[in-house]
Amino acid sequence: MQVMKFKPVDKSGVSLVMAALMLVWPASAQELSEVEDGTEPDEPTETEEFFDVDEAASESMGDMGLVLDEGTWRMPRFCDSLPEACYNDSWDHFVVNPYDKNLMNMTDSVNIDMTGYCHPIAGYVTSKFGFRRYRFHYGTDVKLNVGDSIRASFDGVVRISKNGYGYGNYILIRHNNGLETIYGHCSKLLVAVDSTVHAGDVIALGGNTGRSTGPHLHFEVRYVGNAIDPQSIIDFETGQPKTEQLEITATTFKYKKEIASMAFYTVRKGDTLSGIAKKRHTTVSKLCKLNGIKPTTILKIGRRLRCS
């Protein structure tokens, strides 16, 4: 595997380069847990930078779709008419989703090139994208053994490579096709921020770090910070994308409407399930189903119960 590091150039020229349609790459951090939507940093955001690359890597950089501009290799600018245009001005090192773009009501469609995809690891799915009791799980979990090789899904540049509370040791890669992918709970990270990777490169070793109950890969696919159900676009049995051209529409993010409609209740002293059910105009059986509890479960003060 050939890993190429970008070298920051003089920051005094950043505004000029931006005007010349150069791309800014950020390096980010974590979701505080897998149930948040990736908008909370755990460290301050660093200054945006542009990056040069070593001339010795020229042939490989060209193969990856990078553009040579006045002796400097740069990522091609994302189309200004598409949602991913926000990538052009954002290269955040500490936030998974720094873009503030909710695509739940997007009116247009976007096509993403899925050719060249490499499945990060072979294994069976242990947890799917969707609700986990009162939390939402934004990725797909795949069983592995500690130390197993984890591979990059597409060509791209590493935006995050660090430890986070929820993800544990994790990597986020921004890809040339407009997607970003996340690889969580790793035991060891093998690529640094700003490293260029090819699809299939080994980027980390499987593990059980962070918010995890057993060795697995937490794999996410995001578009402009908005999570996409990996199993809706990838066949995890064959390790192949379900289509060569992925169409992204508002329907892709319809799960966000369900999240927005969720209601919670914080348990107070003296509360009972039947009492809470009556207050929230629901039933004890529904509360139990939504929260994975039994009618006999002892309610601890301060616990949040999902009510709808």
Number of strands: 24
CATH architecture of the largest domain: Distorted Sandwich
Helix content: 10-25%
| Overall tally of domains | 3
**Class by helix and strand content?**
alpha+beta
Describe how the helices and strands are arranged:
Blueprint lengths: L3 E2 L1 E2 L5 H6 L31 E2 L5 H6 L3 E3 L2 E3 L35 E4 L11 E3 L2 E3 L2 E3 L2 E4 L5 E3 L4 E9 L3 E8 L3 E8 L1 E2 L5 E3 L4 E4 L10 E8 L2 E3 L1 H4 E2 L4 E2 L3 E4 L6 H6 L3 E3 L6 H7 L4 H8 L12 E3 L2
Antiparallel strand pairs: 1-16, 2-3, 4-5, 6-22, 7-10, 8-9, 10-18, 11-17, 12-13, 12-16, 13-14, 14-18, 15-17, 18-19, 20-21, 23-24
Task: Give a written overview of the molecule.
With 308 residues, the chain is of the alpha+beta class. The chain folds into three domains: 4-101, no CATH class; 125-258, Distorted Sandwich (Glucose Permease (Domain IIA)), CATH 2.70.70.10; 264-306, LysM domain (Membrane-bound Lytic Murein Transglycosylase D, Chain A), CATH 3.10.350.10. The protein is built from six helices and 24 strands. The chain has helices spanning 14-19, 58-63, 230-233, 255-260, 273-279, 284-291, and strands at residues 4-5, 7-8, 51-52, 67-69, 72-74, 110-113, 125-127, 130-132, 135-137, 140-143, 149-151, 156-164, 168-175, 179-186, 188-189, 195-197, 202-205, 216-223, 226-228, 234-235, 240-241, 245-248, 264-266, 304-306. Strands 1, 7, 10, 12, 13, 14, 16, 18 and 19 form a nine-stranded antiparallel beta sheet that branches. A three-stranded antiparallel beta sheet has the order 11-17-15, with no helix packed on it. A two-stranded antiparallel sheet has the order 2-3. Strand 13 (168-175) and strand 14 form a beta hairpin. The longest helix has 8 residues, at 284-291.
